[in-house]
């Protein structure tokens, strides 16, 4: 694991494919109004110069005609991104779509609100402070907020590879599995086989047609789960990817893909188990098992797709 994060500290070396190599030098000194960007461990990654829209890497060329020169990305109004030596480093649109030219770098990255998508699948998040998380692990942070798209191009699109993403994902899964193995498990009951819908509430029924519980979206944006006895909430689906089930907060999770309009529900190991997909034609959400695509339920797209959780987890008493 240590070697993995050390390698990520030199991820900018992935740009070697355009004909140069990089090595760590003394850190850059930011000027007035500039923003420093750091790796999660505190090492400087680079400096953003907002006045000129130039992102300057801490790493420098050490061979060739440009030896001793910091590598930079200059962001132009036409959407092209240029290296300091004048060659094209990639493209970036105002909407947040971007691709890097290096063969080992990433293409088809999309920054959407707070989500970072790769080939329309969520790989990370970026908040308003410009902290960047990849598969739940903090990767970069900034001395002040900056252009999110420029940051994601330099730090994610141009500096990470498919192998880096796999390592991040594997590290997350391993950490989650280790934590899940030590954690106590809540009592699991029935999942819904079908539901009846009103505006912000659903009633859940089992396969025999017996009502087993309900779920209601309240004014705080959270969805609360009730058993048929309705003696109090046994679960709460928040708006940040977590589910509190019978007091076991963070035991179950979900993730959104806003571009694809889907919700992915995960098990206690944070591995995907069910996906809720939007069907534009039928105006329904379809609840499908992740492993085989089997349809296990549908409900109208007039309600929050998080209600699909009632088909997934054993929220209701047997």
List keywords for this structure.
eleven-stranded antiparallel beta sheet, mainly beta, 318 residues, elongated, disordered N terminus, 3 helices, twelve-stranded antiparallel β-barrel
Explain the layout of strands and helices:
Elements: H1 2-9, E1 22-23, E2 35-39, E3 44-49, E4 54-61, E5 70-75, E6 80-83, E7 88-92, E8 97-100, E9 109-112, E10 115-118, E11 121-126, E12 132-134, E13 137-142, H2 148-157, H3 162-182, E14 194-197, E15 201-205, E16 211-217, E17 223-227, E18 233-237, E19 242-245, E20 248-257, E21 262-266, E22 272-279, E23 284-289, E24 295-300
Q: What is the CA-atom radius of gyration, in angstroms?
A: 23 Å
Order of helices and strands: HEEEEEEEEEEEEEHHEEEEEEEEEEE
Shape: elongated
Number of DSSP-assigned strands: 24
Poorly predicted runs are 1-25
Explain what you see.
By secondary structure, the chain is mainly beta. Helices cover 12% and strands 40% of the residues. A twelve-stranded antiparallel β-barrel has the order 2-3-4-5-6-7-8-9-10-11-12-13. The protein has an eleven-stranded antiparallel sheet with strand order 14-15-16-17-18-19-20-21-22-23-24, with no helix packed on it. A hairpin with a 5-residue loop joins β15 and β16 (211-217). It is elongated. The protein starts with a helix and ends in an 18-residue tail after the last strand.
């Amino acid at each position: 694991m240590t070697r993995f994060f050390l390698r990520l500290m030199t991820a900018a070396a992935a740009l070697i494919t355009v004909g140069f190599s990089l090595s760590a030098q003394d850190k850059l000194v930011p000027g007035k109004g500039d923003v420093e960007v750091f790796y999660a461990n505190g090492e400087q990654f680079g400096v953003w110069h907002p006045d000129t829209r130039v992102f300057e890497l801490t790493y420098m060329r050490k061979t060739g005609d440009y030896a001793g020169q910091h590598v930079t990305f200059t962001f132009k109004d036409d959407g092209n991104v240029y290296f300091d030596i004048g060659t094209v480093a990639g493209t970036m649109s105002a909407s947040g779509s971007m691709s890097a030219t290096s063969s080992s770098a990433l293409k088809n990255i999309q920054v959407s609100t707070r989500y970072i998508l790769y080939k329309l699948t969520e790989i990370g998040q970026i908040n308003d402070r410009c902290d960047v998380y990849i598969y739940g692990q903090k990767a970069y942070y900034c001395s002040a907020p900056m252009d999110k798209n420029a940051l994601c191009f330099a730090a994610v699109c141009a500096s990470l590879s498919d192998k880096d993403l796999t390592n991040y994902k594997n590290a997350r899964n391993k950490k989650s599995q280790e934590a899940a193995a030590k954690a106590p498990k809540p009592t699991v009951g029935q999942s819904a086989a079908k539901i009846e819908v009103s505006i912000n509430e659903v009633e859940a029924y089992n396969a025999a047609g017996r009502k087993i519980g309900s779920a209601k979206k309240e004014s705080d944006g959270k969805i609360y789960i009730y058993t048929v006895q309705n003696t109090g909430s046994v679960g709460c689906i928040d708006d940040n990817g977590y589910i509190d089930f019978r007091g076991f907060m963070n035991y179950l999770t979900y993730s959104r893909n806003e571009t694809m309009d889907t919700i992915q529900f995960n098990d206690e190991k944070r591995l995907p188990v069910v996906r809720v997909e939007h069907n534009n034609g039928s105006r329904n959400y379809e609840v499908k098992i992740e492993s085989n695509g089997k349809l296990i339920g549908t409900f109208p797209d007039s309600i929050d797709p998080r209600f699909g959780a009632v088909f997934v987890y054993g929220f209701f008493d047997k």
